[in-house]
What does this fold into?
Amino acid sequence: MSATTENQPLPRLATREVLLRKRRGWFFGMTGDQVVKYLFQGNAAVSIIVLGLITFTIFKDAVGFIPMNHANLAVYRLAGLEYVDLYREQVTAHSTMSRYLADIRARQLDILMQQEGLTAAAAMARLAAFDDFANKFADTINEQETLLGTMSDLVTAVKERQKVAEDLMVARQNLLGGMQGAAPDRAAQLQKDAAAIQIEVIDFKAEIQPVLALRPELVAANASQIAAMREIAAQAPKFADAELSRRMGKFQGFVQGYFKEVEVIAGRMAAWDQAKPIGWLEAFNAFAFGRKWVTASFWQDWYGIIPLLSGSLLIAFLALLIALPLGVAAAIYVNQVARPAEQKFIKPYIEFISAIPSVVLGFFGIAMLGETLRRVSQIPALDWVPGFPMAERLNATTAACLLALMAIPTIFSLAEDAINNVPRSFKEASFALGATRLQTIIHITVPAALSGIMAAILLGFGRVVGETMVVLLCAGNRIQTPDLASGLGVIFQPVHTMTGIIAQEMGEVVRNSIHYRALFMVGVVLFLISLLINWLAQKIVRRYRISIG
Amino acid sequence: MVTLAPMPEPTVTPSAAPRPVAVAPAAPANPAARAVIEIDDVDFNYGAARALHDITLNIPERQVTAFIGPSGCGKSTLLRCLNRMNDLIDGARVSAGQIRIDGVDINDPRVDIIELRKRVGMVFQKSNPFPKSIYENITYGLRIQGQKSKARLDEVVERSLRGAALWDEVKDRLHESALGMSGGQQQRLCIARAIAVEPEIILMDEPCSALDPIATAKVEELIHELKKQFTIVIVTHNMQQAARCSDRTAFFYLGKLVEYADTRTIFMNPANPQTEAYVSGRFG
Ligand SMILES: Nc1ncnc2c1ncn2[C@@H]1O[C@H](COP(=O)(O)OP(=O)(O)O)[C@@H](O)[C@H]1O
Ligand SMILES: [Mg+2]
It folds into this structure.
C-alpha cells in the first residue's frame, strides 16, 4: 500500500470533487455492498412471500369449512336426524342402567365365588333370580328400540337421497365446467349429458311427516314402558351385602332419574322445529367446541376439535412435565458443574438425540416402551398408582415419554444458552460473598436466566405440540376426549392428536370435501398455537435482555 | 465533601514526560502493624504458563496496601489468590510457596473456602450488583448464611450502606433494582455488599477504573474510612490513586515483585530504577 504511493504519486483531487464522485461498481454497475444488500433483500422477500402463500392457502381452504359444515348441520336438522338423535338419548340412558345391572351382577358373582367359595355353576344358579330381573328390565326398552330403528331408517333414507342429489349436482357442475375450451361437438354432447341429469329436489317438510306421525306411538310406548319399569323395580331383588344393596339403591335412583329424563326428552322432541335455521356461529362452534370427531359415518359426521386438541395438549403437557426437569437440570449441570471433559461429552450427546428420526423413536415406542410400561403397570405392588394397570400399551404417556426425549435437546440447548449468557461477574460476586456452588446456582444463575429458561420451555412445548410421527405411532389414536373423571389415570388413556389426525386422514379425503376442509381447520389451530408460543417466547426473551441490562 | 486538592487524573496513560506525583498518606504507615497476610515465595501458574514468580510480601493489618504495575504483570492474579477466586479457573494453581492469613495456609485442603471468602471480601473492577433490589444485594451474603431475622437484616443494610457512604442517596429506594443506580453508586453498593458479611480483609481490583473522577474521589474517601476497620488490598494502575489512598505499595513487573515499601518511599525515593521509571510515568 505504502509502496504504490511512493512509486507514483497520484494527482490529488480536490476534496469537493472526491466527495461528490459517483462510485461505479463491478457488477452491472453495482458495488459489492449493493449486490449483497439486494441479494439478502431478495432472499428475505422470497421467504416472506412463501410464508404468506402458505398461510393464505391454509386459511383459504380452512375458511371454506364453515359454510360446508353449515350445510352439513342443516341437512342433519332438515332430514330429521337431529330429531331421532333426541330419542336415541332415551334409549342410551336405558342401556346405561342395564350396564349398571350387569356390573352389579359381576360383583355378586365375585362375592359368591370368592367369599362363599361356590363353584361357578352353583353361583350361576344362585344368580338365576337376579338374571330374571335383569332380563325383564332390559326387555322394557324393546318397543323403544324398534321405534328408534323405524325412525332411523326413515331419516337415513331421506338423507341418502339428499346426498345423491348433491353428488349429481357436483357431477353436472363438472360436466358444464368441462365445456369451456372443448371442441363444439364435444361441448354440445357435454351439455346434453348435463341436461339429462335428473336432480331430485327433496321436500324435507313432507318427508319428515311419517317420522312425526309416529309421535302418538312414542307416547304410548313410553307410558307402557314406565308402567312396566315401575312394576319391575318394585320387585327388585334385595341383598344382604351392604355394598351391593347400596348399589341397588343407587340403581333405583337411576330409574327415577330415567323417568324424569323421558319427560324432558319428550318435551324437547315436541319442541323440535325442523324449520329453525342453523346459525353461522353454530356451524363454527360445532368445530371449536365440538366433542365428537366422527367421519365417513352412516349416520352423521361431526367435526369437533375438542378430542384432538385435548389429546394434543394432554400429551404435550405430560411430555413437558418429563422433559422440563431433565432438560433444565442437564443444562444447569453442564454449564455450572460439569468439568470441561464432561461438557465435551454430554453436550453433543444430548444434542444428538434430536438427530434420531422421529419414526425410529415411534418404532421404539411401539416395540419396547409401550410394552414395558404395561408390564410395569401390571405389577401388583403398583396397583395404588392411578390408572394402573394400563388398559392399552399405546397411550398418552407412551407418546409423551418419547416426545419428552425429543423436547429435551431443544430445552437443554436453549436453557444452556440462557444460563451461559448470565454474566460471569454475577457468579464471581456470589462466590466472593461465600456462597456455595449450589446457592449460587439457585439464587443467582437460575433467576438471572429465568426468562431465557422460560422461553426454552415454551419452544420445547411448541416442538412437542407440532410433532407428528411419534404421536401417530404411539398415542393409541382413539378419538375421544380424555376422561378427566378417571382422575390421574387419564394419562394412560389412548388419545388422538391434531397432528396425528391430519397425517392419518389427509391422504384419503376427497379434495375440497368438508372433511378435507375440516383437516385444514385443524391445521389452522395448530398454526395459531405455534404462533402464540413463538410470540410469547420472543416477548419473554426481550424482557430478559432488558433485565440483564 | 471531598477535597480535590490535586485534581485526580482521569486517564491513566502516563505521558511521555515524567511528572511529579502527589503523595499524601494521612499519616505515616504504622510500622508496628501486624502482618495479617503473609505471602511466601509464591509461584502461580495458569496451566503451563507461569503468571507469578516467587512473590514474597507481608500485608499489614488495617492498612491500605496497593498493588501497582503495568497491565498483565499479575496484580489481579495475586489478589485473586488471597480469596482463592482463582479456584474457579481450570488449571490455575499456586504451584509453589504459601499464602497465610492469620497464620493459616489458605491452600491447605482442610481450609473451608466458604469461610475464607466470608473473611476475605472482594470488590471487582467492573461493578457487578446482582439483578435484584438494593436491599437484596446487601443481604445476599447473610441470607445464604441462613440469616432470616428481618430486624437484623434491616440493621445490616443500614450499617453497610452508611459504611459505604451510600445510605442517604438510596434509603428511599432500597427495594428498587440495583441496576438503576449510577456506575459510582453501583460500585459503592458492591463495597457495601462486601462489608455486610463483616470480613476482615477487603480486596479491591481496580475498583475505580470504570468511574468518573467525582465517583472515584468518593470511593477513595470511602477507602480511607474503611481502613479503620478493615485491612484493604487494592489493585490499581492509577498511580495517583495508589499514592493518595495507600499506606504501602507493591510494584510488580512481568509477574515479579520489583519493590515493596511504604507508599511514600515508593513514590519519592524508590530503590529500584524500574520502579522509579514506572512511578514517574516513563513506561507503562
Ligand atoms: N484466566 C487466565 N488464564 C490464563 N492466563 C491468564 C488468565 N488470567 C490472566 N492470565 C495471564 O496472567 C498474566 C497476569 O494477568 P493479570 O493478573 O490479570 O494482570 P494484571 O491484573 O496485572 O493486569 C497475564 O499475562 C495474563 O495473560
Ligand atoms: Mg487486572
Remarks:
- The first strand of chain B starts at residue 35 and ends at 46.
- The pocket of magnesium ion (ligand 2) is lined by residues B 75-76, 205 (CB under 6 Å).
- Residues 1-27 of chain B have pLDDT under 50 and may be disordered.
